[in-house]
Predict the 3D structure of the following.
Amino acid sequence: MDRLKRMRQRDWARVFGFACALGGVGMSLAGYAGADWDGLILLLGALMMLRGAVEGPSPSRVAGLMRAGRLILLMLAFGAVNRAQGGVEGAVAGVLTNPILWAVGLLLLALPLLRRGLGWSAGERVLPEIGFAVIAGIAFWLLHGWLVGTGDLAALWTLVAVAAVVNGGAVLRSGGGWAEQGAAFWATLICVLSQPGAVLWPIALAVLPFAAGFAAWRRRRSSGEGK
């Protein structure tokens, strides 16, 4: 009980991140109607929680804007996946033309601008990250268009994959713990490789050794740096 009382917000975010990653795969294993859609939402939620667990306060307004942009991508992916449960057609177009979502997005972008005491930049590499996100989006669109056709399903898959890669990459670059990085790598691989609406758990099991190996490598590397 005392240990629970001492847990900070970041500790709870870590716990919920792990729980969402495992719960998403568990829902797919349960196999009820819509289980894999719910599981995909939980896996995206895992990336959001893990980001909260490893990121500290924004060091500058630019960093805050970048974090808001990553969160907006997740928000759009959440909304599109939720809409797609009733039919993939128009799911991405629906969220991209939703004025309420964009109002929330503008509010998220305004928060770091209105926060007092922050400088504009602390040496963030903005253009490389934006360029990577754009290139990843084009690459995923071409790949998914080849796999499932250049339609609504490809657009949804591309949005989910880009949101996962951008937010998962933020966890991997953060220098957080090996467990968080391993879980984020696992959730990112599942989101990228799983067609939205298709069964998640076989892919989750297939990529688990890669995520475990990555986590073990990060653990050895952090142990070596600590000596």
